[in-house]
Amino acid sequence: MNTISRFPFFRTKYGRDLLIDIVELKYARRFLRTETVHTLTYYDITLITEGEGYFSIDEDTGIVKPGDVIFSRPGEIRCWNTRTIRNGYALIFEEEFLLSFFNDPEFLGRLCCFRPGRIFSRCTLRESVYGRILSLMMDVRKEIAVFSRKDNHLLRALLYEALILLYRSYQQDIPLLPDQTIGSSPHVSRFLKLVTECYKQEH
To answer: Quick check: helix, strand or coil at residue 153?
Structure first.
């Protein structure tokens, strides 16, 4: 039986503990040439900027193109066409990065683009939103370059703005089913999150 590659967050990539990063897809492709099916231990928001091809998150597979954004939660099975999707940017982060500052443990669970059991894991951004999200990602990248362990508030603010803009775009692009609304039970959300993250280890 083939095993699925699992990629953890590289916390000390910049020589200090940092739980947010921007990864260029043409860089990430090098690690997926032989093992395209994989899972991540962190949240990932991938913005396609060049090329098109299939991108799969669990059971949701579709063709993505420039201007499309894909959302994945920790533990979800991912696969994408590394030959025809030429480039893009992935905004990646650990939940801890937000929870260590925002006193709202259910924040990410209430964003329908990250809800467990969602039907669609991607949406198409309007041109103005696409430009703003790409700009935010570049601002995150610049801020990481001058990051001080004592102050990462701007990084959190940039991530928070991106999440809210993407949440609104997802709502506009993807019709919600009754059980996908933002007011669903936090207990159900926590249970589904645990199932998604731990179903391979805990039965």
So the answer is: helix
